[in-house]
Amino acid sequence: EVQLAESGGDLVQPGGSLRLSCAARDIFNLNDMGWYRQAPGNERELIARFNNRGGPIYADSVKGRFTISRDNAKKTVYLQMNNLKPEDTAVYYCHALFTDYWGQGTQVTVSS
User: Fold this and answer.
1) Side-chain half-sphere CA neighbours of 101 within 13 A
2) What three-state secondary structure class fits 30?
3) Which residues make beta-bridge pairs with 34?
4) pLDDT by residue (tens digit) across 11-63?
């Protein structure tokens, strides 16, 4: 059974960093994983994923600050977030693309 579990969300000051993790049980190909976020009152948006060759694709809002990576042995996908801004405040989700599988989300709050 596919299970996705995010962790690593926290309260951080502007300019700070966080690393989110997504443990992906029973996902065959981690290249089919992506990170989304949803801020209050906003739609859920895709912010990072892998292309079909395993390279990263980012939304313009996070390009240059966030990095998606994966550890195939640990079946885990990561999102390194640097230079965080208040507008990055949201619930962050990992998602198995082309499926209905989502994690429960982890809260990231950027505030001084």
Assistant:
1) 19
2) helix
3) 49, 95
4) 999 999 999 999 998 888 888 999 999 999 999 999 999 988 889 999 999 99
Q: Are 59 and 47 in contact (CB under 8 A)?
A: yes
Single-letter code of the amino acid located at 66: F
- Two tokens at 88? 């990055």
Q: What is the DSSP letter of 108?
A: E
Report which secondary-structure segment, H or E, holds 95: strand 90-96
Q: Checking DSSP bridges between strand 11-12 and strand 18-25, what pairing results, if any? A: unpaired
Closest by alpha carbon to 40, among 94, 91, 86, 104?
91
| Cα–Cα distance measured from residue 49 to residue 95, given in angstroms and rounded to the nearest whole number | 9
Query: If you search the block for the tokens 């981690």, which residue do you land on?
Result: 30
Is residue 7 within 8 A of residue 20, CB to CB? The reply is yes
Q: Where do we find the tokens 């992506």?
A: 34
pLDDT of 80 reads 98
3 beta partners: 25
Residue listed under structure tokens 């405040």: 89
